[in-house]
Design brief:
With about 60 residues, the protein is an alpha+beta fold. It has one domain. It is built from one helix and four strands, in the order E-E-E-H-E. Strands 1-4 form a two-stranded parallel sheet. Strand 2 and strand 3 form a beta hairpin. The chain starts with 14 loop residues before the first strand and ends in a 7-residue tail after the last strand.
Length: about 60
């Protein structure tokens, strides 16, 4: 059984919630490694190019 991906779905005109792990390392408020953001871009771009209404969900940092 093949794994379902975003490309298997009809997304045009639909709202799509994407849970992203954007909890990136920072030093003095500056992102020091943006790899997690960069890795999410192909999916986000695909959705936008296929007329989906994209909602990104993430968090940043730890609860103090």
């Amino acid at each position: 059984m093949a794994k379902t991906t975003v490309k298997d779905l009809q997304v045009s005109g639909k709202k799509v919630i994407v849970r992203c792990d954007f909890n990136v390392p920072r030093k003095d408020g500056v992102i020091t490694d943006d790899n997690r953001i960069v890795m999410a871009l192909p999916t986000i771009k695909y959705l936008v190019e296929n007329q989906a209404k994209v909602i990104l969900m993430s968090h940043l940092g730890k609860v103090k």
